[in-house]
Amino acid sequence: MNPTITLFISLFTTLVAIINPLEAIPVYLGLTAGQAAAEQRRVARQACIYALLLSFFFLLFGTLLLRIFEVPLSMVRVVGGVILTRVGFDLFNPPPSGGIIPRADSGDADIAFVPLAMPIMFGPGAIATLISMASTIKQSPGELLHFLAASAAIVACMLTTYLSLIYAKPILRKIGKQGIDAATRIVGFFVAAMGMGLIFNGAVEFLAPYSNLARTAGGG
After folding, report:
1. Rounded distance between C-alpha atoms, residue 28 and residue 72, angstroms
2. Where are the domains of the chain?
3. In 106-145, which positions are buried (b, 16+ CB within 10 angstroms) versus exposed (e)?
4. pLDDT tens per residue, range 2-39
5. Family, per the entry (predicted)?
6. Nearest to 17 by CA among 148, 175, 197
7. Residue 103: pLDDT band by 50, 70, 90 thresholds?
């Protein structure tokens, strides 16, 4: 398969799994209960726009942040993997406190930004994924095409999330709370598996220079 298409599919599925629009539905409906349909659509649209802007910020400036703080990509993958694994465990078996995925709190703040856009839609897992992806794109020969594919994947993911919020009530009626809970747990399993893969790949990449150095020293 074409590497650009592979990148699009990989990033799209990863972001959808991390964001998990199904999990945002009960929170969204709870926060907008009693509001007019037009206001509910506005909140959904605004939340997705906020999450989209945050995604592009970390995609564009993720590597710059790494350089400023002098953090190697391998460590980002390890830490990102740890975060993804914990997110996956929280999705698979959510603790009473809500764990790393905070629940909605009442208040006068802009609910489209907090808690919908951040951290429910765009949390630690998405940040780690996009920073890692940005670093990988910078190292690839077809940087522009890969950047366009990643951008398309982000837009497609946010569009999917927006549609799931717009049709939240019909979705909830169709599959019910038990269906959402089952889907969330299945997604959590695969998110945890992706996190473990990132940890393994990051550790191998970090230890590779030391392995080469040991072989060189042994050969000498």
Report:
1. 37
2. 3-219
3. eeeeebbebbbbbbbbbbbbbbbbbbbbbbebeeeeeeee
4. 888 998 998 999 899 888 888 788 778 878 888 899 99
5. Belongs to the UPF0056 (MarC) family.
6. 197
7. very low
Q: What long-range pairs does 29-35 form, CB within 8 A, spacing at least 24? A: 29/168, 29/169, 29/172, 30/104, 31/104, 31/111, 31/116, 32/111
Closest CA to 44 of 122, 161, 171, 175: 161
Predicted confidence at residue 12, as pLDDT, reads: 95
Q: From the DSSP assignment, how many helices (H) and strands (E) are in the chain? A: 7, 0
Who's near 41: CB < 8 A, 6+ residues apart?
A: 166
- The verdict on whether omega for the bond into residue 119 sits within 30 degrees of 0, i.e. cis, is yes
d(CA 114, CA 70): 30
Count the neighbouring beta carbons within 10 Å of the beta carbon of residue 76: 23
Closest CA to 26 of 141, 142, 104, 106: 104
What is the band of 100 on the pLDDT scale with cuts at 50, 70, 90? very low
Cα 37 to Cα 40, 155, 165: the distances in Å are 5, 24, 12
- Cβ neighbour number for residue 102 with a 10 Å cutoff: 15
pTM of the model: 0.72
Q: What is the largest CA-CA distance in the chain?
A: 75
Identify the burial level of 44 via C-beta atoms within 10 angstroms of its C-beta, where 0-12 means exposed, 13-18 middle and 19 or more buried.
buried
